[in-house]
Every structure is written in structure tokens, then in C-alpha cells.
Amino acid sequence: MASSSPTQNFVADTWVKATWEEFMAIADNPEYEKANFYYDRGYMRIEIPPIGSSHSQDNSIAHNVVSLYATVKNSRIKSLINCSFWRAGIREFQPDLDFYIGAEFRFPPRSNSPINLDEFPPPTLVIELSATSFNDDIGRKRLIYKPAGVREYWVVDVNAGDIIAFEIFQGSSGDIQESRVLPGLEIALVKEALQRSLTQDDGEINRWLLQSFSQN
């Protein structure tokens, strides 16, 4: 009897035991072209992103906050959306947003392949937008980002309009109220921007952000 393929046994949005080869077989399947992929030491998780506007709007707000703050403070920054990073055979992650920040980062060249963490540094800041995956985002995924070398990790709770930020340092992590990679940026201000988006358009929010950042 022929054995079933990993695609046949695959269950989305949960951690499933799998080899790297099984994970790669699903990642190469065009049926999951728009999915987000995670792998960590023998387990994989394939997420089907929400298609509603809440996740998309909060993604835009979080990106604008970070980009505008870095711009006003003259910080060197490069942003990526849904980019994959991997250490072949060990782990892969594909967060909603990630940023290289600082004077000395070496940014990988343009490519259609995942960024190889054996050749290039990990992103400085990673942001996950959680509509249905909040518990996993604040739990299991932190176990991926810590050994990968990510320095700061934010989780936006789309349903609650809230945000939790973690500093990752020397293999441990703790929640923070002010960004360490963007000094002076208070997490409460990011939360307020998310809440303002319920009633204000992006232009209003961006003008408020620019005014707030210029006063600090």
C-alpha cells in the first residue's frame, strides 16, 4: 500500500510533526502559495492568513508607526512584509512584518528565495499580527525567534486592539513598555495608533504620529 503524502495529512494552523523534507514538499505546493510557513526542530505550522480587513489594517498601522519613527529619528531601516527566513533543516519563519534597524546591518540582496540565516543576519524587529493565532504567537513562536537572534518581537492582538512587546536578549525574553531597538518609542503609543485606526483614516493617524514623534 502506498504511503500518504505529507500534503494529504496536513492540517493548517496547528503544529504538526514533520521532517524538513515533508515541510519543503508542502511549501513548494502552489495550493499554499499565500500561506505563512514555520518550522522548528521537527515540527511545522502552516498558517492561512485572515482575509478580512482587520488584519490588513493593523498590519499597515504597525508598519507605518515603525517606518515613520525611524524616519523622524534618522535611523537606518529596511522593512520586509511576509518574508521567509530559514536555517535549512532546523527552522523557518515567515512573520507578517520584519525590520532591519541600525547603522551596521547587512541587508540581504533581492531574491525570490528565503533569506539564509547561515549567510545573513536575522531581522532586528519581528511583528506578528494575531487574529486567530494569538496564543501561539506569544508562546511557541517566541521559541523560534529567540535562537534565531531576533532582538525584539511584537505581537498585535487584532481582536483586542492591543499589543505586547518582548525584548529578546541572550536566549531569554521579557515584555517591555518601550522599544529597545527604536529607543524612545513607547509601546503605548503603538497601541493608541491601532485604536485610532477604528475611527480615523491613515492620513490623520500619520499626521498625529509625525507630530508626536517630532515632540520627543
TrEMBL record:
One Pfam family recorded for the sequence: Uma2
Family annotation (CDD domains): DUF820-like (cd06260)
Highest taxon above the source species: Bacteria
Gene3D superfamilies on file: tt1808, chain A (3.90.1570.10)
Putative restriction endonuclease domain span: 20-197
Name of this protein: Putative restriction endonuclease domain-containing protein
Organism: Chroococcidiopsis thermalis (strain PCC 7203)
